[in-house]
Amino acid sequence: MAAARDYGLGDGYTWPRPPAGGWTADDLDRLPNLPPHTELIDGSLVLMSPQTDFRMAAMRLLEFGLWVQAPEHLYVAREMTTRLGKWDRLEPDLMVVQRSARTGPDQTWYEPDDVVLTVEIVSRDSVRRDRDVKHRKYADAGFRHFWRVEEEGGLPVAYVYELDPATQQYAVPVIHRDRLKLDLPFPIDIDLTAFDRPQRPNP
């Protein structure tokens, strides 16, 4: 079982005691001294594992690619939460949201209606959450576009999902290796083999 010191909290730290029924999305902003990037899933606090080199490099590549290619009315948010309901406040690795949804420097979450794309980069301890729990919750929230990114042979592989309007569930993903080239939610072209070296926008 993880100790408080594993999250940089010190040996004297006492874990918060959940109220009856579990924590709520509003509690996430009120609880003191939570570890960075704590999520709320079904009323339970979920703590992030330490960063890995792959996740850091993949996030940097995708964030930069989205940043330089997103239309002006959209904004790329990194490690921000989205409030899906009273008991769920998830933190995708990346989101593309409506720029108009930004309310100021103290903002900590976005409404689902403002989310255009969510991206999860799978780590060893998040496989079940990203493949199953978050996949299902993002679909239930109506997020039209969702990417799940996994490591394969040292390179990122993107599983690209789009919500089926008939079932309101994600269709079978399109798998992208080496190059992520899409028309939706806006034209995107990212060289996935360049995840560990600088990428510069085309002139």
Automatic annotation (TrEMBL):
Pfam families (UniProt xref): Uma2
Residues spanning the membrane: none
Domain Putative restriction endonuclease: 26-193
Top-level taxon of the source organism: Bacteria
Coiled-coil regions listed: none
InterPro entries in the record: Nuclease_put_TT1808, Restrct_endonuc-II-like, Uma2
Protein name per the record: Putative restriction endonuclease domain-containing protein
